Amino acid sequence: MKSDQYGLSRRGFVRGSVIGGASLGAPALLPVLSTHAADGPAAADATASSGAPRAAFTDHSAALSPDRTVATACQFCNSNCRLHVDLKAGRILAVRGEDKDPVQQGQVCVKAELMPQLVYNAERLTRPLRRVSGAKGSPSSKFEAISWDEALRTIAGKLLALRDAGQAHTIANRTTGRLPRGTGSLVARLFAMLGSPNNTDVGPVCNDAGGNALAATFGLGTFTNGYGIDGATGRDDLGSARHYLLLGTNQAETHPVTFDYLLRSRKRTKATLTVVDPRLTPTGAVADRWVAPKPHTDFALLLAMLHHIVEEGLYDKAFVERWVVGFDELRAHLRKRRYTPTWAAKVTGLDAATIREMAEEYATAKPAAIFCNAGISHQLGAFDTYRVAAFLAAVTGNIGRPGGGCNFMHNTWPGDLHLPPLKAEVPERREALPVGPDYFAESILTGRPYRLRAVITQGNPLVSSANTTKVKKAFEQLDFYVYTGLFMEEAAYYADIILPVCSGLEMEGVYMRRDDRAIRWQEQVVDRVGESRPDWEIWIGLAHALAELDTRRPAVEWREAFPKRWMDYKELWDDFVAHTPGMGGMTRTRMRKRAEPLRWPCPTPEHPGVSTLYLDHPSWYEAAESLDPAHRGKRFLTPSGKVEFFTPELEKKLAVTGHSALPVFYTHPEVTGRNPTLAYSRTFVTNPVNPQAVTHPVRLGVPGDDAVHRAFPLMGMTGRPSVVHFAEVTHWTPTGKQLNGIRFIQIHPDTARRAGIRDGDDVRVESPRGSVTGTALLWKGIRPDTVFVPNTFGPAQKVGDLFDDPRYEAANTLLDDRYYDNLSGQQAFKCFACRVVKA
C-alpha cells in the first residue's frame, strides 16, 4: 500500500510548535506569537500552501507579547510532550512545543490547545458539593456547595463507620490515568491503614495485560525500548529499527508525536511497517502492509507467525540457546496444537501466504520492533496474546536490543512509587475483588464474593466500564459514592459527595509519562480554578480528617503517615526519589533542566537512564542491581535470569486459573465462526498474576456457539474517536466538540447497502445488551463483518450543545462485562455481536 494512497501526511496528526493557527482546520483560539516549528516536513505547518512563511500578525504587539513563559507538559496522551506556555498578566496566550527535544522536535498535536480550555471552562466544578435531593443518576439531582473540611469529614466518617462495623473490605477506590504520579501510593497507604484491599487502578480498563505478560516473561512489566538516543551508548534506539510490527495500535491518532519520530526514522533507515487492525486508520494508511484480521483474533495470527519462524529455522539460535528457558517445550507445543498459518487463516480471515510473509519479514529484519496498544489489551485473551508477542521478540533475538523489543504501550513507569516505610500497624485484609473496576457492578448487585458499600473514583465508570446499563443499576444502589473530577460527568449524578480537582496546568509536579518509561517535571502555569485541589492534596486531607474522627487509631499515626509537608508536591517527590528502587537519579532539579524527559530506571544522578531494557551493557546491569540487590549480574530479572517461556513453576502458578505457561488459543464467544472459547467457573481462586485478588478459573477450548449471530450478524469494536479526543475529558472542551462532536459509526459500504443505510444516516447499533446511536460513516477501510463504534461519548457532555451535537449514550452499553481476562482483569472492549439499523 502506498503511503499517500489516502492523501494523508504527517501534518494530518502533528503540527509545528505554535498552535492556534490554521493547521488541522482548527479554530484560531490562541494567537500565533512566533514560528518555532522544527525544520523539515513539520515546518510545513508554519507556511501557507504556496510555501511562503505565514505573516505573524502578533509579532511586536504590546498587548500580545508574553511577559512570562512556563515549561509544563501535556496531560493527555503518552507522548508526554513538553509545552511552553506563554502568558500575559497571568492569562494564557499560546502553547508551544519543545524544539530542543529531538523526539518531539517542537511538535504538538491538536490536544495541546485543549489544555487551556480545561482551565477556562464555564462547566468546571469549583467547590465541593453534597447531594441534597433527587434519585441517584437523575439529571435533576440537586447538590449544595460545602466546605472542603465538611466534605472530607463526611467521607472520613462514612469510611470509619464501615471499618468499625467490620466492613472495611466493602470500601473501594478506582484510580485513573489522569492522576499526578504517586497519588496511587497515597491511596494504597490510606487503604492499608483502613484495612481495605480494594484500592484498584485504571490498568484493567487500560493496558495491564501487557505489563503482566512482560513481567512473567522478562522480569519487568514495562515498555522495553526507548524513543531517541540512548544516553548510555549514544545509539538511536527505536529509531534504528528496520521493521515495525504494529498490532492493535493506531499511533497516528493516539500517540502522534512519538509516532512521527518513528516515521522520520523510517525515512532514514528505510524500515518497513506492518499494521494489523480490522479497520484502516491513519496509521495503516502510511504502512507498507495493512492487514485486517477479524477482531479478537490477533492471538491466532501471532501463534501462526511464531510457528512458521520456529519450523523454518528463522529464529536466533545463539540467543535462544544462551538466554531462553523452555524453547523446546514451546516448539513441541506449537507442533502438537498445529498452530500453522493455514490454521490461522481460517480463524483470522487472512491469507496464509500473508501470515508467512509477515513472519519472515519480522524474523529477518534486524532489528525489528513490536508495538501493541489497547487493540490487544482489550481482548479476552490479552495476557496470553501478549505472551506470544513476547515469545516472538525473544526467539528472533529482538529483546535487549536497540531498535527491537516489546513496546506494549501504556505499560510504563512510574508504577508503584514508594513512600517511607509505614510505622503504624495495619489490620489484616481479606481478599480483594476480582481484578478490575468492571467487577464493581457485579459485587454491588449480587454480593459475590461480597457487596461494596462505599466507592471513590477518579474516573468515570458510567462511560468507561463495560455494560453501562448494569453499571447504572449498581451505582443507583451503592450506599455511598464520592466522585472526583473536573466536570459534572455522568458519574457525578450518582454521587453523594463531589470533589473538584485541578487540571494539568494548575499544578506542579510529574503528571503524564511517555510510554518508554520517561517523565518530565512540569511547572504550575496558572492559579487553581475556584477551590479545586490536586488529587494528592485530597488524599492527604482525607487522612487528616480520619485522624480527627478515628476513635480506634491514635491521630498521630494518621498524621505521621501523611505528613502535611507532602501537600507540597516537591516534598512528596523527594521522598519518592529517596525510597523507590532505581530512581535515585530522577530528581526534580535534574528534570527541570532537561528539554528531554528522563527514563527509568535511573539509579544515580550520573546515570543517563535506561533506554533498552535487558541490554548487555554496564548501564543496564547497574540499573538492574539498583532495583533489587538480588539482580546483581542478571540480564533478565526472572527467577532463572533468562527469558522464561516455560518453567514448571510458571506452569503450576497459572494452572490454578485454567491457563498454561504455553498459551492455548481461544477467543471471544461473539467472534464469528464457532471458534474455541472459554467457560468461567462460579468459584474463586487466588489470582496468580495479581495475588492480592481473587478471580474466576476458566476452562479453555470450549466449542463456540454461533447462535448469537443469527440475530446480531456483525462484530462491533470500540476505540478512540480520533486524534482530537483522549478519554472523556476532551469532550468538555469547545474545540473537542467542534472538531469531533459527532459519533461516526464506521460501516463498510457493502454492509450498509444491505441494511439500507446511506452515508450520513442516523443509525442505531444494537447488541444483546442494549443500543447506542450515531451517524453512519461508510468506510471502505473496514472489514465488511465489522462495525467501529467510537467510545468516550456520554450523555452529560453539554459543551456539545453549542454545536448542536447529539448527547450519546456510552458505547460500552453494547458490551458484555461477563467476558474478561481472568489474569489481568482486562475487559473485552474489542468484540461484541451487533447489528446496525437506521435510527
TrEMBL record:
It comes from the Bacteria. Keywords: 4Fe-4S, Iron, Iron-sulfur, Metal-binding, Oxidoreductase, Signal. It is found in: Cell envelope. Residues 1-37 form the signal peptide. InterPro entries: Asp_de-COase-like_dom_sf, MoPterin_dinucl-bd_dom, Mopterin_OxRdtase, Mopterin_OxRdtase_4Fe-4S_dom, TAT_signal. Its cofactor is [4Fe-4S] cluster. Residues 67-123 form the 4Fe-4S Mo/W bis-MGD-type domain. The keyword Oxidoreductase applies. Its main location: other. Belongs to the prokaryotic molybdopterin-containing oxidoreductase family. PANTHER family: FORMATE DEHYDROGENASE-O MAJOR SUBUNIT, TUNGSTEN-CONTAINING FORMYLMETHANOFURAN DEHYDROGENASE 2 SUBUNIT B. This is Molybdopterin-dependent oxidoreductase.
